[in-house]
Amino acid sequence: MEKIFGKPLITHDEIVHRIRELGIQITADYAQKNLILIGVLKGAYAFVADLSRAIGLPAGIDFIMTSTNAHGEKTISTPTMDLRSADVLVIEDIIDSGVTARVILEQLTKLGAESVKICALLDKPAGRKLDITADYIGFSVPNRFVIGYGLDYKNKYRTLPYIAVLDERAGS
C-alpha cells in the first residue's frame, strides 16, 4: 500500500495529554449536572471512547449519525436517549465548515436538552462557512485534509493512533 501521509501532525502522546486536560475541565464544568455525551459517528468514535474515560462523572453516552439528503441538506439521526432536562455535550471529530455542527445544535436543542455544547477534537477555522465555535477544542489544525484517530479518507486510516495530513496526491 502506498503511504499517503507523512509524519504526524499531532502525535498520539499529544492527543492523550490533551484529552486528559479536556476531561478534567469537563468534569469540573458539569459537576452536579445530568451530563449526556453524544458522539457523532463515525469519525468521533475513538475520541468519544477516550474522552468519556477521562471525564470523572457518571455520564450517559449515545451516538448520532449525520447525512446529506438529495437536496444537499444535512440531517441527523435521532438519539436513543431522552435528552429532556439533560446537559448534552456533543463530541465531534472536527469542526470544519460549521454546517454540520449548526444542524446538530439546532436539532438537539429541539429535543428539550437543558443545554447543548460541543467538544471537538479538531478545529479547522480556515474552513469555516458559518460563525460557530466549539465550547471545548482539542487542537486547531490548518486547512488541510487530515486523517487518523477516527478521521478517514475513503473509510480508511481511522485506526491511525495520531493525526496526519493526507498527501494531496492521494485524492487524484
TrEMBL record:
Record bears the keyword Glycosyltransferase: yes
Example of a GO biological process term: GMP salvage
Gene Ontology cellular component annotations, sorted alphabetically: cytosol
Enzyme Commission number(s): 2.4.2.8
Entry keywords, A to Z: Cytoplasm, Glycosyltransferase, Magnesium, Metal-binding, Nucleotide-binding, Purine salvage, Transferase
Molecular-function GO terms, alphabetical: guanine phosphoribosyltransferase activity; hypoxanthine phosphoribosyltransferase activity; magnesium ion binding; nucleotide binding
Catalytic activity field: IMP + diphosphate = hypoxanthine + 5-phospho-alpha-D-ribose 1-diphosphate; GMP + diphosphate = guanine + 5-phospho-alpha-D-ribose 1-diphosphate
UniProt pathway annotation: Purine metabolism; IMP biosynthesis via salvage pathway; IMP from hypoxanthine: step 1/1
InterPro entries the record matches: HGPRT, Hxn_phspho_trans, PRTase-like, PRTase_dom
Cofactor(s), by name: Mg(2+)
Major location category of this protein: cytoplasm
Location(s), subcellular: Cytoplasm
PANTHER family: HYPOXANTHINE PHOSPHORIBOSYLTRANSFERASE, HYPOXANTHINE-GUANINE PHOSPHORIBOSYLTRANSFERASE
Family membership noted in the UniProt record: Belongs to the purine/pyrimidine phosphoribosyltransferase family.
Protein name: Hypoxanthine phosphoribosyltransferase
Organism for this UniProt entry: Leptospirillum ferrooxidans (strain C2-3)
